[in-house]
Amino acid sequence: MDIKQCRYFIAIAEERQITAAARRLHMAQPPLSQQLKLMEDELGVALFERKGRSMELTQAGRSFYDYAVTMTKYMEEAVMEMQSFRYGIRGKLSLGINTISDRLIPQALQQFRTTHPQVTYKIQQNESAQLCQLLGEGKIELACVRMPVHTEQYEVLHLPQEALFYISSTPLKSADESGIYFQKLADIPLLLPSTEGLGMFELILQKFREHHVNPSIAGECSDINMLLELVRLGFASSIVPHTVLQLYHEHPFHVYRIQDAQSTVDSALVWHRNRHLSKPAQHFVQLVQELLPSRLV
Predict the structure, then answer these.
(1) 162-264, what's its fold?
(2) Where is the HTH lysR-type domain (predicted)?
(3) Contacts of residue 78, Cβ cutoff 8 Å, sequence gap at least 6
């Protein structure tokens, strides 16, 4: 048995279908089925129980899964370590970025680029739920997500909390210089960032629910540039985290910080607990930790 067979087994165990595992491994289904049979014959035990189209791990399979993950992890670490001795830190940093990402991440990437000039980058933007799926599939190593997400499978590095701000093309008569409260926004048409049921859209709705306010939602917009332009034109108002104001400060909005308790949003850098991180990813996590305010580390 070799490491390649262990990877085959892990894919089947996580996908729970030969077809899906073959697709993930970019191979045909019959050879994968044959490899599984060879493994079970060599080990002398059944690793899976077939239930219709689903493959469920047996007790022996569950035990072997832990060993297989550990073995592949150590082998990947050994290969990456030897490559770093030979070439220095190089390779690809694959990073998922939330639709509205924390400002710290671009700053960290700029600094990382300076200190690791041989590293290349794959930066992919998506909603937090999709980013977690990409992490699970091994298509990215790190993801900057908006919390909360289910973190049982992930290591989590929390980033600074951000205040929420109400933005509009016209001033609010009921607001003072210190800001505005959710209750005052109940009847104002809002165009919220992200997509209904996901990401920032759901986080903002949850904040309204926590304060027992039923907002007037005019719509949703997953393109932040389009959202800001529509707000500028008076199409609707919006609520955005502080990062948006920092990155798009040239837009002429009337801006009011939301003053209610717990009117902040959280984000985090996450990675899969049972997957080996490449040297570039390890060094990037270390850099982000160094850039965080001391109270968060």
Answers:
(1) D-Maltodextrin-Binding Protein; domain 2 (3.40.190)
(2) 1-58
(3) none
- The model's pLDDT over 19-31, given as tens digits with 9 standing for 90+, comes to 999 999 999 999 9
Q: For the chain, where do the domains classified as CATH 3.40.190.10 start and end? A: 88-160+266-296, 162-264
- CA angle, residues 263, 267, 269, in degrees to nearest 5: 170
For residue 180, what is the DSSP state?
Answer: B
d(CA 203, CA 205): 6
Cβ pair 179, 239 in contact under 8 A: no
> What's this model's pTM, rounded to 2 decimal places?
0.61
Distances (CA, A) of 247 to 9, 128, 224, 240, 284: 45, 20, 11, 12, 22
Q: Where are the extended beta strands (E) located within 106-262?
A: 119-126, 142-146, 154-158, 162-168, 189-193, 216-221, 238-241, 254-257
Using an 8 Å Cβ cutoff, are 100 and 125 in contact? no
Predicted confidence at residue 110, as pLDDT, reads: 93
Q: Could you give the angle at which helices 59-87 and 3-15 cross, rounded to 10 degrees?
A: 130
Average of per-residue pLDDT values in the chain: 85
CA 30 to CA 37: how far, in whole Å?
A: 11
Q: Cβ distance 166 to 279 under 8 Å?
A: no
Q: What is the CATH number of domain 3-85?
A: 1.10.10.10
Neighbouring C-beta atoms of residue 120, cutoff 10 Å? 11
Least confident of 177-191, 203-217, 272-286: 177-191
